[in-house]
Amino acid sequence: MQVALFITCFNDTLFPNTGKAVVSIIERLGHQVIFPEAQTCCGQMHFNTGYQVEAMPLIRRFVEIFSRYEAIVSPSASCVGMVRDMYRYAAEVHQDAQLAQAVALLAERVYEFSEFIINRLGVEDVGAYYPHRVTYHPTCHSIRGIHVGEAPVQLLRAVRGIDYVPLGQASECCGFGGTFAVKNADTSMAMLGDKLRHILDTRAEVCVAADNSCLMHIGGALHRQRSGVRIAHLAEILAAQE
Amino acid sequence: MNNPSRTAMLAKIRAAIHSGTRGAHHESQTSVPYSTQDDGDRVARIALFAHRVAEYKAWVGYCTADGIAVAIAERLTFRGKQRMVIPVDLPAEWLPVDIEFIRDTQLDRTVIAGMDGVLSGAALGIAQTGTIVLDGGKFQGRRMISLLPDYHLCMIHAQDIVGVVPEAFAQLAMMRQTPIQPYTFISGPSATSDIELNRVEGVHGPRTLDVLIVQ
Amino acid sequence: MKKPESVIIELAPRFEVGAKSALQNTQLRRNMGKATQTIRGKRASVVDELADWESLRVAGQQIKDEVLQNLDTYLEQLEATVTQAGGQVHWAKDAQEANDIVTRLIRATGSHEIIKVKSLTTDEIRLNEALELAGITAIETDLAELIIQLAHEKSSHILVPAIHKNRSEIRALFQKSMNLPDLTDEPSALAGAARQFLREKFMSVRVATSGANFAIAETGSVCVVESEGNGRMCLTMPEVLISVMGIEKILPRWQDLGVFMQLLPRSSTGERMNPYTTIWTGVHANDGPKEFHLVLLDNGRSDVLADAVGRQTLHCIRCSACINVCPVYERTGGHAYGSVYPGPIGAILTPQLVGTAYADSLPYASSLCGACYDVCPVRINIPEILVHLRGKVVAEKQTKPQSWFDGENVGMKAMALTFAHQRTYELAQRAGQLAQWPFVQDEYIEQGPGPLGKWTAMRDFPAIPAQSFRDWWRERQRDE
Predict the structure, then answer these.
(1) Which chains are adjacent to chain C, needing at least 3 Cβ pairs under 8 Å?
(2) Distance CA C159, CA B194 (A)
(3) N or C terminus of chain A with fewer C-beta within 10 Å?
(4) Other CB atoms within 10 Å distance of the CB of residue C182
């Protein structure tokens, strides 16, 4: 099948390896990846910070660019949540029935990467090999927003050679929260402190998640503290082969 | 009614309802209705009630219909209670002889407060939550007598124990008087968790609660 | 625009500022962490017991939606049924009017002292202060409220107001104010001290005030949920009872209590049922007060009702489940919110009651983690409302000329314009790749310029790779 990749603005710019990993896995599983180059940003940061009027052109643009595709996959649970939940809300608030309808149709075809592999493709073992000690942080958008459930952990457990360690108090927020990380930096860091503690307690070498946005926050502190622990997106683990 | 605030408030509310209505939300939610009764196993229900009441640190015991006076005597002797206030309609057959029972004929509050305890019946019990409900009806008296003394011995008939909370409200509605009587729901002795969230028994209201289930 | 009335704590700083100092209070961090973790565990355990918990939540949401959609009708019905049962109903459009009504009613009894059951609504309208001005002393009878009153402090949690105090702090307070020099810090001793102190009041004071957890339109019954027994005392012993209730607290039918008396105890104290609940209807001969007054309070609620997105805030039954689960509240405590209502519910209710302009930092006091929505027994979509209120804050800010010079506003607008076209977006990527080089060391930026500095003050930032994903994709397409 043809799969349109919704890379997200920050993955495109800061974490291109995640995108490359997604492409390689989907192709490995026998499907074709399309990259609609006109895409830029889903508008989440603006919208969630209160710049909703400013976000509307980005929202409309996204809907227009992606509406023609049967399946759209993104390695960002938060951006998928934006499209699936907040786009509907944005259309409602702006009383745009046409946009609301387009969004309703589109939302059903947008997948977060791990739920795409598990639910849509029905695959658990993607043929990955990753001989490292790994822990997994379930981001708030992935578990409470779009409800990916156990999909990411199922995929990780199927990786050959992996030493998977569950994270303590895993479902607690890491403190990123988009612009919250800067506007309420002190509280954000207080929350991160506890998340780091749990990560370090696992003695893992790598902390994995389905969102690079949260990982940027976690990894930024892991690096600052010279903790010897690094971050990686789930797709990069699954793309690794012998 | 000639009340400008009332008129203004209602007008504002009506305007607000109109402007604030929203279209349907498609939120994923269950359409399974909540339960309005338990599975009907009466023996299990009574055992559950007793277990749940005991979990609140209240004492629970059983007696038969013709063993009530003996059971009461045992309990009150064990607790060292000698002067008990009772509702005016409490049956004389319930009362053991060696203990003084004073019927609440609109007694003064200081007299009630000076009693060793109160003996009463109950309107119903809720097994799921270990709750006793008083409705001022048969053998219960007014609220003050089960509130001021430091000890409450409560008799509840097994058949008056319902399974779940919605059932209790349905049952109480059927037993409703006119005018509607005041209700007190009791789930264990009084407690507070305000000090470091340690549950501490006994602030106001009876600090000791004994429950006798009559089967 | 409304004046910031009673619900806001005077001179409270912006949330970020209050939070920063609260975060450094190690005693507070310890107390809060322990307390909220305990309550979370208790709640989880009693909620897991109920197979129909989600069904109850949906029922709770639907009943509250029905109430709000027909609030005028249910208020009129409640007025009729309460009046028929011998009670008197008063209508108060704001805090001032409510305080005037209550003061007048107390004055009519000739009492200068009243006993109170804890009521957030009376805290919201600052009833105690209004009564003091009128020469009436209001004695709080809830243990925690008593602690707060004696300490001359403000509550930091809607259910456990003294959650920020540990036992030795409380002992010190009681030793001083109750003149009990030998008091230990055992919780049972502290509770015993309170019992004795208040007993005398319960026996003699003739007037009491309370709030109301629920009022049933169908029957005119009012319900108060509590733990200690002081509620029962205040609702039974005095001659005159005055209950102040927010208009949204109505339930349509008696039977609806079967839903809410499951949702509330399990969500608030994490118990199957709280120790005492009193449900009374008007006045009843020979049992309880001879006079009952119900004061219906608006004070901004009709404004919340008028907001299509915000209206669901009025579902709130003040259980505090959201507060107990919030990772922000756990670390900052309640005072940082500067309002009678702290935590997630406070962050959405406060700005809606007083106007977002007067509480503009509260909608941002959240990482939008959604834990609150998960536990809310009446399914208030708190994250959605927070985003909605942020939109209002920004829109209001943008009506002022100063916004032209506001860094965040200018930056966000510029970024939105840049990202609206592929060409400008790609140019911005390129510009970033080039401009960063003075700041990059070993693939990280540890001291970023300008706005990036706010990030790098706390954590490192990854360098922008020389080749973006789309660069790589195009190269791959060319090579094929």
Answers:
(1) A, B
(2) 9
(3) C
(4) 6
Q: Which residue of C has its CA nearest to B12?
A: C302
The pTM of the full predicted model, rounded to 2 decimals, is: 0.95
ipTM of this complex prediction, to 2 decimal places? 0.97
Measured in Å, how far apart are chain A's first and last C-alpha atoms?
26
Measure B26 CA to nearest chain A CA, in Å.
10
The whole-angstrom separation of Cα A44 and Cα A6 is 14
Domain end residue (candidates: A87, A120, A153): A120
Q: Is residue C380 part of a domain?
A: no
Q: How far does the CA of residue C141 sit from the closest CA of chain A (Å)? A: 35
For residue C91, give the chain B residue with the closest CA: B6
- Residues A115 and A171 reside in one and the same domain: no
pLDDT tens for B26-62 read 567 888 999 999 998 999 999 999 999 999 889 999 9
What is the arithmetic mean of pLDDT over C188-204?
A: 87
Q: Do C227 and B193 make contact, defined as CB atoms within 8 angstroms?
A: yes
B:C CB pairs within 8 Å = 250
With respect to residue C179, please indicate whether it lies within any of the assigned structural domains: yes
Give, for all 215 residues of chain B, the pLDDT tens digit.
569 999 999 999 999 999 887 765 656 788 899 999 999 899 999 999 999 999 988 999 999 999 999 999 999 999 999 999 999 999 999 999 989 999 999 999 999 999 999 999 999 999 999 999 999 999 999 999 999 999 999 999 999 999 999 999 999 999 999 999 999 999 987 777 666 666 676 678 898 999 999 99
A174 and A72 part of one domain = no
Separation of alpha carbons A45 and A58, rounded Å: 11
Which phi and psi angles does B59 have, rounded to 5°? -80, 140
Chain C residues in contact with B181 (beta carbon < 8 A): 281, 284, 287
Chain C's closest residue to A85, CA to CA, is C384
Q: What residues of B are in contact with residue C162 (Cβ under 8 Å)?
A: 194-195
Per-residue confidence band for C209, with pLDDT thresholds at 50, 70 and 90: very high
Q: How many domains does one find in chain C?
A: 2
Assigned domain for C238 exists: yes
Whether residues A137 and A235 share a domain: the answer is yes
Domains identified in chain B, total number: 1
**Buried-state track C74-109, b at ≥16 Cβ within 10 A, e below 16:** bbebbbebbeebbbbbbbbbbbebbbebbbebbeee
Which residue range forms the structural domain that includes residue C106? 15-301
Subunits close to A (at least 3 CB pairs below 8 A) = B, C
Are A53 and C395 in contact (CB < 8 Å)? Answer: yes
B144 near C CB under 8 A: yes
Among partner residues B21, B30, B109, which is closest to C55 by beta-carbon distance?
A: B30
- Determine the pLDDT at residue C159: 65
Residues C408 and C268 in one domain: no
Residue A171 · residue A214 · CB < 8 Å:
no
- Mutate one of C34, C206, C227, C281 to test the B interface: name it (highest B CB count within 10 A): C227
**What's the pLDDT tens digit per position in C115-158?**
999 999 999 999 999 999 999 999 999 888 888 888 888 777 76
The minimum CA-CA distance between B41 and chain C, rounded to whole Å, is 18
Give me the residues of B, 64-103, that contact C with CB < 8 A: none
Strands C440-441 and C444-445: antiparallel
Integer Cα distance of A121 and B204 in angstroms: 62
Using a 10 angstrom Cβ sphere, with 0-12 exposed, 13-18 middle and 19 or more buried, the burial of residue A101 is exposed
Closest approach of chain A CAs to the CA of B13, in angstroms?
A: 22
Domain that holds residue B136: 36-214
Q: Is residue B48 part of a domain?
A: yes
Partners of C203 on chain B (C-beta within 8 Å) are 109-110, 113
The chains in contact with chain B, meaning 3 or more Cβ pairs closer than 8 Å, are A, C
Kindly report the CATH number assigned to the domain that includes residue B100: 3.40.50.10420
Domain that includes residue A177, residue range: 133-239
Q: Is residue C170 part of a domain?
A: yes
Residue A126 covered by a domain? no
In 3D space, the residue among B170, B192, B186, B208 whose CA is nearest the CA of residue B79 turns out to be B208
In a domain, A128, yes or no: no
* 3-state DSSP assignment of residue A48: helix
